[in-house]
Design brief:
alpha+beta; two-stranded parallel sheet; 6 strands; about 45% helix; two-stranded antiparallel sheet
Length: about 140
């Protein structure tokens, strides 16, 4: 999706990138070649990248016909990695009326991962939680 230009690597003309802007601090800045700094949202506007929040993705899911119980936040907690998030979204796009079923399959598929995370969380001290311990509450199907 990128091309080399005299000004460096740039997004191809006509390509609109999608970037999960809520994953970053709103005070983040980008340093330009001339040394000046601009906000991430201003940079995104200049480079034709759309910054989307989780609520924007949830709106798209509703427009596609997914039930309100299917949310981006839930998908991210259920999926084991970025690749699986993409797979779940693709499945939802193809069968939006089967959202709960798609999420239930992902939970079942990742059950061992959730059990492992629960084990890690219980074996660590109270002051230092296990990495990714937040996912461990999903083994119960929520």
């Amino acid at each position: 999706m990128g091309v080399d230009t005299p000004d460096g690597r740039q997004v191809k003309q006509g390509t609109i990138g999608v970037f999960a802007g809520a994953a970053f601090n709103p005070n983040e800045t980008v340093q330009l070649k001339d040394g000046s700094r601009i906000s991430l949202s201003a940079y995104a506007g200049r480079t034709n990248i759309q910054l989307l929040k989780a609520s924007d993705f949830n709106t798209k899911l509703r427009e596609k016909g997914c039930d309100k119980s299917v949310t981006v936040q839930k998908i991210c907690r259920i999926a084991k990695d970025e690749s699986e998030i993409r797979q779940i979204f693709e499945a939802l796009w193809e069968n939006s009326n089967k959202g709960e079923e798609i999420l239930a399959k992902a939970i079942k598929k990742n059950k061992d991962l959730y059990e492992f995370e629960k084990m890690l969380a219980s074996s660590t001290s109270a002051g230092s939680p296990a990495p990714n311990a937040a996912k461990s509450n999903l083994g119960d199907g929520t």
